[in-house]
Amino acid sequence: MSISDFRKKKLLYVFNVFFDVNQSGEIDIKDFEQAIEKICTLRGWPAGSAKNQETYEEMLKIWEGLRSKADKDNDGQVSVDEWCIMWDAYAKDPSTVMDWQQRYMNFMFDLEDASNDGTIDAREFATVCSCYGTDRKECEEAFAKMSKVSVDEWCIMWDAYAKDPSTVMDWQQRYMNFMFDLEDASNDGTIDAREFATVCSCYGTDRKECEEAFAKMSKGQEEVSREEFAELWQEYFASEDPSAPGNYIFGNLSF
Questions:
Q1: To 10 degrees, what angle do helices 29-43 and 50-70 make?
Q2: Strand duo 190-192 + 223-225: pairing
Q3: CA 23 vs CA 40, 49, 127, 131: distances in Å
């Protein structure tokens, strides 16, 4: 089956913007040398610095890998046709990913992760992509679409947590603690009905319903500690029991 027009447009975008830097219509070593200069200028890595040398060596490995796999006529250049043929082979069997493709993917992630925290945010993403000539606002909009979590993805993630709560992710733990601290306005290490209702009602839930939810969640107690909140949190996402107290931690009484 031939490459669809849609997929070909995607392949040509990467070819023209990120690889054929000098816009010659072919990819060759000169494009990589210009890309290295562009990247090092963006990051402030002067010639002779360790990061400059590391970037140079890694990019040349990527070029050699690309050339050896895609340059079928051995002319020292990768044409549009050779580029598309290579990626079409990958699409048919992603398990055959080539070393240079893996290197380039990791290189781009590390380049965009300027804070070196293991994640890319919109600003980091736009800073790198816009240096290749794409409008920064368009880059930010692209990131918003790229990073969007679907309903199915959301449910799959929490189902995995329900099956094994010990696999809780760092962001989940952070969010739980954030919500507790947000509700604990008095900063005394516990949440009472008024504090709970103040926060949950600001998300649109009726305040009286929030107060009733707190009474059910706390099982009649006046306050809920962080440790108790953590147990209720786990119950909310993991329990199949409609009467479980943890079902009420977000202020609503029914689903």
A1: 150
A2: antiparallel
A3: 20, 28, 21, 15
User: Between 87 and 153, whose confidence is greater?
Assistant: 87
Encoded tokens for 185: 């306005």
Number of H helices, E strands in the chain: 12, 2
Q: What is the DSSP letter of 96?
A: G
Q: Enter the DSSP assignment of 225.
A: E
Q: Which domains does the chain have, with CATH numbers?
A: 1-112 (1.10.238.10), 168-254 (1.10.238.10)
pLDDT tens readout for residues 43-94: 999 999 999 999 999 999 999 999 999 999 999 999 999 999 999 888 888 7
Q: Which pairs from 6-15 meet CB under 8 Å and 24+ separation?
A: 7/91, 8/84, 11/83, 11/84, 11/87, 12/80, 12/84, 15/80, 15/83
Other residues' Cβ atoms within 10 Å of the Cβ of residue 132 = 16
Interval 196-212: pLDDT, tens: 999 999 888 899 999 99
Distance of alpha carbon 112 from alpha carbon 126, whole angstroms? 8
pTM value? Answer: 0.60
Which residues lie below 8 Å from residue 104, measured CB to CB, with a gap of 6+?
Answer: 62, 66
Residue 101 tokens, joined:
């493709």
Strands (E), the chain: 190-192, 223-225
- Separation of alpha carbons 246 and 228, rounded Å: 10
Ramachandran region, residue 187 (left: φ > 0; alpha: ψ -120 to 50; beta: rest): left
